[in-house]
Predict the structure.
Amino acid sequence: MSTARLIDELIAAWGNAPKLRAFLNANSFPLVQDSHVTFVWLGQADAVNVRHWVYGLESSTTLARAPNTDLWHLTLEIPGNSRVEYKFEVLRDGRAEWIEDPLNPNRARDPFGANSVLQSAGYVSPDWTQPDPLARPGVVERVRVPSRTYGHRVVQVYLPARYRKTRRYPLLVVHDGSDFLNYTGMKTVLDNLIHRLEIPELVVAFTDSPDRLREYAADEGHAGYVTNDLLPFMNARFPLIDEPRARCLLGASFGAVASFSTAVRYPGVWGRLLLQSGSFAFTDIGRRNRRGPLFDRIVEFVNAYREKPNAMSQRVFVTCGVYESLIYENRSLVPLLDATGMQVKFVEARDGHNWQNWRDRLREGLSWLFPGPLMFVYE
């Protein structure tokens, strides 16, 4: 059935409670028909807008009100395999309220709350992000890391289910670690990928910063902490493979900048990088950047790297959503990395700047950087 016919059927059911209830129960919202998606709001309002995070479209688009009803609808063309987070902006009596879509049970959570999630035709939430009763769970323990830079930091460390002190393990360091644990379900992802033999057993250090916008903005002190404080502590505390190929830095947004800049400042130490939606702002002419003073140090760092790119790592996995404003910067960085001779893989997703986008790319990124247990010889 076409989108127009579905809307006509919904409007025809207005005022007939059993028919309306039957329609709502028989359909998922937003209504998805091939590449057309229809948002629906039911209720009294002066106006209703859909607020979404798709760069390139108007961030606020108004729903039309069906005559003589409190039924509002809007049809947009969204490509298949897309994931879009959104809210409704409902205006009443001169006031605006942002709310999640009451007809849509799909939610995505982040440090600022929750959004409704549109899953267009073809998108399926990956099964490896869900708990698998057959996958033996690893454990997460908190450790206190002494630091010459910060005094100390508390880091959450993931140990795989079959962890043994007689073996040697690769090390993965994750920036914004608590958020990756809370909003991507990364412990479950690790348990599942290790169980499926898609990645080797890893020791993972989930690190956080109380001042991430400063420390993660290509800060020399943070790079020193990760390489000169955290890495030696992990090597002394856990049985790790002490080779660059077995060390990986992971981060998203500013965390990707922190990972990249750390590897640049300490070339040859970190043999693997997983950079997600990096905030790699730069300027082609002059020093001023369109993203504001928060990005000034990043612009200075990225500009310097663009002038003299070097192979600071061995393998680099870069991913970004095509609905992000950062897609241009990430696309521009990849050829520079590739030209240095490093192995580089770039993956684009029909998604935005959010935690579920970064979650959905973890399997491909980790399995490419650490391709299964046979890559590593355990001692």
Remarks:
- The radius of gyration is 23 Å.
- The longest helix spans residues 220-237.
